[in-house]
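note to self: the first set is below, dont mix up w the second
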Amino acid sequence: MTAISINLNVIPYTVQVITDRYLYLPMIGLLLAGGLFIHELINNKRYIIAGIVLYVIYLILISIKLTSYWKNEKTLFLHTIEEDPNAIPVKNLMVVIYKNKGEYKKALRLANEIIDDYPDYVEALNNRGNLYLKIKQYNKALQDFQKIILLGKANSETYINLGNLYFSLKQFDLAIKSYEKAIELDPAFYLTYDHLGRLYAYMKNPDKAEYYLTKAINLNITYGMSYQTRGMVYIVYYKDIKKGCRDLKMAEKYGVNVGNLIKKFCK
């Protein structure tokens, strides 16, 4: 038995491979014991039922424990980070969750933590840039988006965000160029056309606004914001109440709160 306790390496990576012959007889004994145990279980239904009951109880207890983590995506991701502090993609998702919930300080602290460790992590730079844009720290947002471009890893999302930044700064020519670059990289993404249409509507260019908003709707017929903006373009610039109200009602159908606009213009 002393030999067994010393040489029992289940997966012997480095030590005493030649001594594994000492395990042959003990392993035969363990296999026989295991076989007898299974035989007893099969012949004695009480043991089987008891085992099933215990296993079900175990699953219930585990489920009760995990339910607190599965309450929502925030608690789930926080638990994942607690279990694995190096789960960087999960941390990055938490930045988005904090931002969407208005917890900007938490979002920024976590984003900075990720980028301090991984300064070229594009997804984190993009999320932090969006966060800076949300809290109107435009210069810092611009630095993050420009760094992504300098890294040679910019995609359509990068240029959409850059366009939104320039739109906020009322640098319309740069915003248009950014949106057009985003379309060049991904011509099938509806949101770029929507943003470009809104920009032209803001610039009082109804023809181009209608053109891009219609393209956005054709690419995604369920995105209510495009209907709302195009509806107001019809009403304000073209004085076409019928088309405008039709679009406002479509926007309402797809979840946009336009009840007051419908009451005002669609009597």
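second set (the one i keep forgetting abt)
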Amino acid sequence: MEIVERQDGQIPEHDHSGLGILAKTFEGEPPKSDSFTFRRAFQDLIDGWKADELWIMLGWQDIKQRYRRSTLGPLWITIATGVMAVALGLLYSLLFNEDLSYFLPHVTLGLIMWGFIAGCIQDGAQVFIANEGLIKQLPAPLSVHVYRLVWRQLLFLGHNMIIYLILLVVFRPSLGWDVLLFIPGLLLLMLNGVWVSMFFGIIATRFRDVAPLVDSLVQLAFYMTPIVWTTRTLYSNEAMSQRAKLAELNPLYHYLEIVRSPLMGLDVAPYHWAVVGGCTVIGFILMLLVMRKARGRVSYWV
């Protein structure tokens, strides 16, 4: 056995023993971790996006698992949304004395888009808790689970758009090229779904009381957002016209308008895009701040 002499506590360069290598490892300052940096937060988002085959497959699997052994499968989503849209559309069109050809598409598209928004918020608050096993066993970026959630909600939205196609055949609205504004509006919804899911997902994983609170607030927001009622009804009433402006303080109203109005053949006011764009930028900043602070701790909190 080779004996290595050490002078003044220094480790000779030729000491290749196990203890020597271990001692050299801990010599000087320990290496600095970059886990809690904006660079790693950005890299997580990029790496998760590159793993598209994984989150696309998992999203499809979620749909199949949910409706396994069901005859109609995902069509149950469409049926449930369609029945609710028709019931609420007929009822509130009579209560508010609204034209059914305008009000029923308004309610239907509102419910479809709200399902996507509410799904990203509510499921987002549970996204890491629900994927505890994968997070602990699969070395994948956190954003994979967020992209999987947004992709799943997009599939639900796609199924529900069948109802809109039926309304197009029934009411035959006059649509122009402006209907294509639906595409950038939907892309903005998806971008916001990413930051909302990541932001609330991390916070709700650390503080478990946040998820039920978010559920309650989303339910309250449903009644405060023009989905089963319209701002047009309020503006037509002189006594209520001033109060109608309060509805525009709700950012979710603007999110609905940039997607719903083009599909109904209506003009979208520029300030709707400005509000949504501003909220998107602020949301991504908040998401990156939370990711920088707590992204590396999520696996310990789930």
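remember for set 2: The CA atoms of residues 66 and 73 lie 8 Å apart.
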